[in-house]
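Form 7-S
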Amino acid sequence: MTADLVAFLRARLEDDEQVARAAKSGPWIRHDDVAGVHADDAAPDGRPYGSAVADCRRVPDGYGVPNALHIVRHQPSRILVQVEAQRTLLDRYENPETSDALPDSFNRLTSSTQRLVLAEVLRCLALPYADHPDYREDWRP
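Output:
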């Protein structure tokens, strides 16, 4: 079951990485005097080119500014860091730490404990993908 979960998470992280790399790298910034959030690929004079814009105007329902702040916070560079951090957890699950200075029995025990804890972490990491058709309900923590 956990091997399937690891494969599922690796595939979702690959998807997330591809989307983040395809997006305008930015950094994305919110301008108070502009209707939107812009990838700040600045022109030589410092003005943004405005080649990537997410429309987040101050709309009557008030969601424009919170939408803009959300986009700025979750820009591609942050997603790429999150992808790498989660891949590190997957790697640690697949290859738990051991020590040549310890007896094999102790290494087996600590590896087993690491995997047990990380398996619960992986279940939690899979939750944001629960709407994906390959997600399995038995992974839910």
